[in-house]
Amino acid sequence: MIGRLIYLQLWSKARYTNFAKAQRLQPATIDPQRGNIYDRNYELLARSVDAYSIHVIPSSSRDHRQAAEQLALYVDLSADEIEARFLEQEESQTNFWLTRKLSYEAAAKIRELNIPGIRLITRPQRFYPQGSLAAHVLGIAGIDNQGLEGLEYHYDEYLSGTPGTMQVEKDAVQRRIPGGYENLIPPVNGHDLVLTLDSVIQYIAEKELKSAVTASESEAGVILIMRPKTGEILANAVYPTFDPNNYQSYPTTYRRNIALTDLYEPGSTFKIFTAAAAIDLGIANAEREFYSGPSWSVGGGSVRSSNIYGHGRINFLEAVEKSDNIAFAQLSVEMGPERFYPYLANFGFGKKSGIDFPGEAVGIVPKPGQIAHGETLQWANIGFGQGIAVTPLQMLMAACAVANNGTVMRPYYVAQIRDENGKILKTTEPQVLSQAIKPETAETLTEYLVSAVNNGSGSRARVVGIEIAGKTGTAEVPTQGGYGEDRVASFIGFGPAEDPEIAVLVVLYRPQIEIRYGGVIAAPVFQSVAEQVLDYLGIPRKQTKVAADGMAVVPNVRNYPIAEAEKILKEHRLTANYVNEGTIVRDQIPSPGSRVLPHTAVNLVFYSGSEAVLVEVPSLTGKSMRDVSTILNDLGLQFRASGSGIASSQMPEPGARVPVGTVIEVKFQP
Prior knowledge:
This protein has about 675 residues and is of the alpha+beta class. It has 20 helices and 31 strands.
């Protein structure tokens, strides 16, 4: 006995002293405040707030059933579920968290109940004061205040901070011992993020996107807005959306930032980059001619025209305006993958941009020689945006390069990282990724894209008083073994064209309404967004020029509904003549920009499914150029003249039946 006593008092003294201290000194973790997230104008987007949690410790004096029924009134658990947790604890004798993120009111009611073993603990929890605004960019934080998705996850090491600890000496029933040992290591709060996003621009984008997705009955939609000169992302809207304050109530698919994570075939908006490469290589200019028939046989397959009867003989500028598939397929094949692919790589396709966001997709761009069979046909398709997969971000980043003299900038979300006192710890500087095309190529291409809006399929993207450069897109959606009936409608553009402040991409996935062309349903969304944003940024508008000689200038009414087209023509002192039945204008004669006498009738051709309106070509031999113009205009036909004097020959021949809008080539001789 004496030996045992000596052993305990001398040799085991330190060990048992530590045991005693451990029972009395139980360190408690002090959670740091997670850093705030602000937009570029310091509007608060995310912050940490103190929220109540219920911590349950074992208690022999608690009536489990009664306590469970009382607590069930204030938490999202049934009385049976709560009682089961109490009974499990009775066996294990361990503490547990019953629930978190209690409201102040609920916590006050529970405190009044004074239930044995129930402790109300305040812990910081994430709160998003703007609700769903920019939710796909911000992401979410978990119940333990850790970043789980989006910027919350990507910048978690900066936002999370460092926990502190508090050691307090307590007695057997967990009461603080007066004068006992205390030791505090305070927490270090997280750093703040200042984003490139603008809350006002983000709100505009989200509002317009929701309306567009609803009106077009689309599966989903994206609007991205960037500054071409820096790569700053001003808005990133995705619909359907979710509220990060209550993210558990939404399907996980709603939380994906599909602007970066998901791929799609872009269709005709991709023609911008085919044109860029062809112009840069010196094989395409505005005057170069192409023949666009209904289809073009190439590489063991065929490419179909965007017009079922083709566009006839057109120059390259007209191919851009009319979004002709054949011309762009021919250019792609002429360049070949060896010359075309490096341009696509320099624009950023087929690789990550390096944006500060998790989960960015790479995209799919075949490398030269990678396709064992049918390489020529596939590259013909790539020329007009089919057979290639990209993210919306890649598309807008590449379009920004055209707007930025051919220079590709790295896109980014976070402008600054600051400590809780506002001291700047890190600033993101604009970063050049590559020089995709020569500055003069970018300037020429911008002129073509302005014409595509003013005179071509992008008419409904125009902003009064501000020049817009852009391109429409209507892509087929690939299915197993081919392409189905679903479509992706889009528009991409930038403005003001002469000194771009913003670039905007609108994508509507799988619209279910009858007319699903990008020029009809996506271009108006671009127009509404661009107009509001440019006004918000204070971009001045130019005065519209009026013809000084009394002539009327024919406006572009392609892709407008009939009522709007009539209104626009009336404002320009013109009338409308209907060539066929329909609701949306597909084409018009005279073409946009033509100068005609006031009150001239403009022939309008409407979308009418797969049926084209055919007219018989008259004999023009012996007619003057003025008479030829009048005759063909009345029939809804266009013409291209060579020579001067009296008409001597024509193509197609008299009597041929051709679609309305066909170009008739007429030679004149003195």
